[in-house]
Automatic annotation (TrEMBL):
It comes from Sporosarcina jeotgali. Keywords: Metal-binding. Belongs to the methylmalonyl-CoA epimerase family. It comes from the Bacteria. This is VOC family protein. Residues 4-134 form the VOC domain. SUPFAM superfamilies: Glyoxalase/Bleomycin resistance protein/Dihydroxybiphenyl dioxygenase.
Amino acid sequence: MDYELDHIGIAVRSIEEALPFYLDVLKGSLEDRYTSDVPGVEVHVAVVQTNGQTIELLEPTNRNSPIARFIRQKGKGVHHVAYRVDDLDKAILDAGEKGIRFLEDTLRTNARGRRLIYLNPASTEGTLFELCSYPQD
């Protein structure tokens, strides 16, 4: 199973305030914007590409969303690191056999067709990781 860095999710209070840094300073390009109103997600997303690398800016849409809670607890900044896998179900099984736990309620398909799940940070020395796969994979 190959694990390829897919994107880094960054929690921000305001995408509009954060974008100038990513577009003007880092010379990125805004590739996509969308909102997820799925319960337990509730986030605005801006996808920025910089030299082939992807950053997702994550702005909470309500004060009880996971991103809003993250910002209250830890402040703005890196929320998660996502790795693309060829077969998400197999990656979950393989990691589970190695004792890795998942945040089971996060298994879903997002608004852009990406299947994903988050690993329990207790299994990763405190870092939130996402495993994901895409329909064309």
